[in-house]
Design goal:
Helix content is 39%, strand content 15%. It is α/β, with parallel strands linked by helices.
Length: 322
């Protein structure tokens, strides 16, 4: 096994963040997506085409890897049908390659499986209590992954982040709707109650945390909440930091449950947001002390993360529809 090869499934913002961190550490990096291309590919990173739903393809692409990272996902409206088969194929493909030594798989996850905690902080020891379709899917996938680890087929660790922001992040509650409008002197578009605590994850920290999980043997067989700076920040406070960076007075608007439900009548992605709106109607605070204590990682200061993100959005202006 080539202990220097790391394979990443998914070339979205998180997969890219993992690739960046690995490349900076001098690792051999292979990113897999359907088209075999990734704009502005980090130096030294190989991007190949591959269908991760095919066990044989996964097996071939990971046969020399010491660590694989699962950062791929189907469209938001297709999770129930397509997400479990995708992750199962990746697990089975890696398991077929172990040659007597179980390979490592690091899975990027979110926090849906905990359900509505009525504002209580989210810690790794909470039971899965999903009351939404997508939460049930995430719970099912996490349980299947940890069962594969317990059986010895694959060594697995799961890293969980909250809504994330950063370079290349567009389709997020704190993505393009929050960063592009301020750059045009308009209001940042927030979700739900903008004055409640809502933990936000910097995508580069998420990527770094997944790499750490792949390095540390004690991480295996467990779930971990990745570090977040200022976990008690509100969306309004977050938006103010963006306007501070730009040099303008803050201006925000917020979309509530009713408007999202109306939008869902016409837009499939908005329809899928409706069941998750509870995260924005009560405090949504993530406890990452377990990770920070175990591995000593501190998150990027929020002002620095926002500065880097604003720089990226400025360098990549949104194309206006004609």
């Amino acid at each position: 096994m080539n202990t220097n090869l790391h394979v990443i499934f998914g070339a979205g913002p998180l997969g890219r963040a993992v690739a960046n961190d690995l490349a900076q550490r001098g690792k051999q990096v292979r990113v897999v997506n359907r088209i075999g291309k990734m704009p502005n590919t980090p130096r030294g990173v190989e991007v190949v085409s591959g269908n991760a739903y095919h066990v044989s393809t996964v097996r071939e692409l990971t046969k020399d890897a010491s660590v694989t990272y699962q950062c791929a996902q189907p469209g938001y409206a297709e999770w129930r049908e397509k997400f479990p088969p995708l992750q199962n194929a990746i697990i089975n493909g890696i398991a077929a390659n172990k040659n007597g030594v179980a390979s490592k798989l690091i899975i990027a996850d979110n926090l849906y499986m905990y359900g509505d905690t009525d504002g209580a902080p989210l810690a790794e020891n909470l039971p899965y209590n999903a009351h939404t379709r997508k939460g049930a899917v995430r719970a099912e996938m996490a349980e299947a992954a940890l069962a594969a680890h317990q059986s010895g087929r694959v060594q697995i660790a799961i890293g969980r982040g909250s809504d994330f922001f950063g370079p290349y992040v567009l389709g997020s509650a704190v993505g393009e709707r929050v960063f592009y409008p301020p750059l045009a002197g308009k209001a940042a578009s927030l979700t739900g109650n903008a004055d409640l605590p809502h933990t936000i994850t910097y995508v580069e920290d998420f990527g770094k945390a997944l790499v750490i999980l792949g390095e540390r043997e004690e991480a295996l067989g467990q779930t971990w909440h990745v570090p977040n700076d200022q976990p008690m920040i509100t969306q309004r406070q977050f938006a103010k930091l963006i306007f501070d960076e730009i040099g303008l007075p803050p201006k925000v608007s917020s979309t509530g449950r009713l408007m999202i439900m109306i939008g869902g009548l016409f837009i499939p992605e908005a329809r899928e947001v409706v069941e998750m709106i509870y995260e924005f109607e009560k405090p949504f605070v993530v406890d990452s002390r377990k990770f920070e204590k175990a591995f000593g990682m501190k998150p990027t200061p929020l002002r620095e993360a926002i500065r880097k993100t604003v720089m990226w959005y400025r360098a990549n202006p949104r194309e206006e529809k004609k």
